[in-house]
């Protein structure tokens, strides 16, 4: 090999080496010109219209369970649902539009790295089963937005927050001040993460995967002002064998709140002879504190999870059938949640609560077994609830039809009447008939008005019951155990020792009740005090002394005229007035 060829070879090798070094340097630290060109540009170029968003997927690592937790909300059949929760209805439309709008405004603030080996450092490792061996801190949160056809509109893996002391590259420190600056990797069309790590302003809190953040959590939509009565039914369900259970009734207690005071409406106890009427135990009173907690718990009853009911049972509940049937699989599904079907009636592990509203319907809540959701957000014990709405027929007695006066045509004809019964004239008969017809019309008009009001109120209650049951029918609801403990009261919880003295005044400040007005003052002047009595004449009647007050009826006075003697300026009793009979004449005088 000649010297010239050796020189050429050395130069070529050096060029290749320098090229490789240049590539490595570029991948590790992007060129300043390239970074400058990207800064300020939208991070997601395919997202043009927030209305195009039809689904949102969020995947994160659950450190408590040590597993990947996917969450997805999507529009299915025109409804927003949560597929990971058996398509439970989601309150997602406005929230998802807001998220899509926010993503459209996300701008590139800088580039941290192009090396895959830096992904762990920035916490942008894709959260999937293949990366579970990676440190939990290095797993990011995957966010993916798609349109109705499943086309990706925006996708990223959000990593840890940017620290102003980070020195991975100058770009990583760009605008690091602010808690929302995070490292971000984009997802490609194939769903895989790209190598480049950007710095962008992303609020990770808006990408919640908590079930209750995406639903209407208010289970009952309860209005305290419409509360009429609360009934607590206490019973026990005990297994007889593997196929049968026994229901043992205990008590049913109904209370109501009137004028800010709780009172007992009825108390029924179940004994050897069946149901018997009970009363408030001696020396005890209604436990207002526990009942106020119960009322607040009803208002605050929130959903933290759901489980789908057996299909056949759901269909019957939507039809509001009182007698239910269920197959073997459905029976097992009921019992797993702590409910049983006995003689066509659903019963539960922990009794029932009936909340009667003055709008014509009642909520019936049955409490089942404890339920563990097993996630970080809702760790701990919760409780299954079987909810149903029922029309309260007692609030809708049909208005009575009025008794209409009979028309003259329904009475005797003139041929059948005696001379004394016959109408004096045809004109008088027509007037009487017109009066009766007017009265009949008035009564019928009033009845029709009352009937329409009754019908409208009943129809409104029926619609409310139907809408509530359409929401309740498919699901066992899961509520916090703390709320359940306030709802689940027994006889001993409802009564307390009676106070020996009221803790608050009956009227006035501190009582919550206005004091009654004082009695009206008398306008009659008070009589002067009587002079002291002469002890020597105690037993003698006082003849000449005028009395300031009227003497007692049973103490006749000496100078008082007798009943049959006329008073001054009055006619004598035996002298009758004009055209007036003698009232005081003894019998027999004539």
UniProtKB/TrEMBL annotation:
Entry coiled-coil feature ranges: 444-471
Record field: compositional bias (Basic and acidic residues): 411-422, 534-590
Compositionally skewed regions (Low complexity) per UniProt: 397-410
Assigned keywords, A-Z: Coiled coil, Membrane, Transmembrane, Transmembrane helix
Pro residues: bias regions: 515-532
Region (Disordered): 397-433, 500-590
TM regions (residue ranges): 7-26
Stretches assigned to the DUF4340 domain: 80-307
The protein's name in its UniProt record: DUF4340 domain-containing protein
């Amino acid at each position: 090999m000649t010297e010239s060829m050796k020189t050429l070879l050395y130069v070529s090798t050096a060029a290749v080496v320098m090229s490789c070094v240049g590539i490595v340097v570029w991948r590790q630290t992007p060129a300043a010109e390239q970074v400058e060109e990207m800064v300020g540009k939208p991070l997601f170029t395919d997202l043009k219209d927030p209305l195009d968003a039809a689904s949102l997927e969020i995947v994160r690592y659950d450190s408590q369970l040590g597993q990947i937790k996917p969450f997805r909300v999507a529009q299915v059949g025109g409804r927003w649902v949560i597929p990971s929760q058996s398509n439970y209805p989601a309150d997602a439309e406005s929230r998802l539009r807001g998220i899509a709008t926010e993503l459209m405004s996300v701008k590139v603030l800088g580039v941290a790295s192009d090396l895959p080996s830096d992904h762990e450092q920035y916490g942008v490792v894709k959260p999937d089963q293949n990366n579970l061996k990676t440190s939990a801190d290095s797993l990011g949160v995957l966010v993916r937005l798609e349109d109705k056809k499943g086309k990706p509109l925006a996708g990223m893996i959000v990593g840890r927050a940017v620290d102003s002391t980070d020195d991975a590259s100058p770009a990583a420190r760009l605008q690091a001040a602010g808690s929302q600056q995070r490292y971000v990797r984009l997802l490609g069309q194939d769903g895989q993460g790209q190598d480049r790590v950007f710095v962008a302003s992303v609020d990770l809190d808006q990408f919640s995967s908590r079930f209750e953040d995406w639903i209407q959590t208010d289970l009952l939509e309860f209005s305290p002002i419409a509360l009429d009565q609360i009934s607590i039914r206490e019973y026990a369900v005990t297994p007889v064998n593997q196929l049968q259970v026994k229901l043992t009734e205990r008590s049913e207690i109904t209370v109501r709140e009137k004028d800010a005071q709780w009172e007992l409406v009825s108390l029924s106890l179940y004994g050897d002879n069946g149901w018997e009427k009970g009363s408030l135990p001696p020396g005890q009173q209604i436990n207002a504190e526990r009942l106020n907690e119960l009322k607040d718990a009803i208002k605050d009853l929130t959903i933290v999870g759901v489980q789908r009911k057996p299909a056949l049972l759901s269909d019957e509940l939507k039809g509001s059938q009182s007698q239910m049937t269920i197959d073997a699989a459905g029976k097992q599904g009921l019992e797993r949640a702590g409910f049983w079907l006995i003689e066509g009636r659903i019963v539960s592990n922990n009794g029932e609560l009936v909340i009667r509203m003055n709008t014509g319907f009642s909520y019936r809540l049955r409490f089942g077994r404890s339920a563990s959701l097993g996630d970080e957000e809702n760790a701990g014990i919760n409780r299954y609830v079987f909810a149903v709405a029922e029309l309260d027929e007692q609030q809708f007695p049909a208005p009575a039809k009025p008794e209409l006066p009979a028309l003259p045509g329904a009475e005797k004809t003139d041929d059948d009447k005696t001379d004394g019964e016959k109408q004096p004239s045809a004109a008088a008969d027509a007037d009487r008939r017109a009066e009766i017809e007017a009265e009949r019309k008035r009564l019928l008009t009033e009845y029709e008005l009352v009937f329409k009001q009754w019908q409208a109120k009943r129809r409104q209650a029926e619609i409310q019951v139907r809408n509530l049951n359409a929401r309740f029918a498919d699901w066992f609801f899961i509520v916090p155990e703390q709320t359940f403990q306030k709802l689940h009261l027994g006889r001993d919880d409802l009564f307390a020792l009676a106070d020996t003295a009221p803790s608050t005044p009956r009227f006035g400040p501190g009582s919550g009740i206005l004091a009654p007005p004082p009695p009206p003052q008398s306008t009659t002047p008070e009589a002067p005090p009587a002079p002291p009595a002469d002890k020597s004449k105690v037993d003698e009647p006082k003849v000449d002394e005028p009395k300031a007050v009227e003497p007692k009826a049973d103490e006749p006075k000496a100078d008082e005229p007798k009943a049959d003697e006329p008073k001054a300026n009055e006619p004598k009793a035996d002298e009758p007035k004009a055209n007036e009979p003698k009232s005081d004449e003894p019998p027999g005088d004539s």
